[in-house]
Amino acid sequence: RILQIREVNRLAAASKMPFIIGGDFNAGEQSEVIKTLDRSFTRTCDNCPATFDEAGDSGAIDYLAFRPSGSFKSLSHKVLNTVHASDHFPVLALLQLDF
Fold it and tell me: How does DSSP assign 34-93, residue by residue?
């Protein structure tokens, strides 16, 4: 996962367009994977709500993020924990494009 996020950061840095990424990172906020993501991207949440709850184990491992940091403003972020689309809950963020 760390090699993958480094490559994502490298590819995103090569783009001159605003860049949004989202998905299941299978990594908690204090992990090296998310710390690496945070070096290039701004996540739509800090201290993110849990995105899965499996047999009493829960946490945030699904994220939405953007770059460059001034390209968007995160207006809201929420986890739809009553929707069971998979073993993870959907994450919904409202972003405002700021140029």
Answer: HHHHHHH-EES-SSPPPSEEETTEEE--EEEEEESTTSEEEEEEEE-TT--SSSS--EEE
* Count of residues in the chain: 99
pLDDT of the chain, 99 residues: tens digit per residue: 999 999 999 999 999 999 999 999 999 999 999 999 999 999 999 999 999 988 888 999 999 999 999 999 999 999 998 877 788 999 999 999 987
Nearest CA-CA partner of 20 in 48, 50, 42:
42
Instruction: Enter the pTM of the model.
Output: 0.91
Q: Which phi and psi (to 5°) does residue 51 adopt? A: -110, 0
Calpha distance 48→34 (Å, rounded) = 12
Question: What is d(CA 67, CA 22) in angstroms, rounded to the nearest whole number?
Answer: 12
**Whether 37 contacts 5, CB under 8 Å:** yes
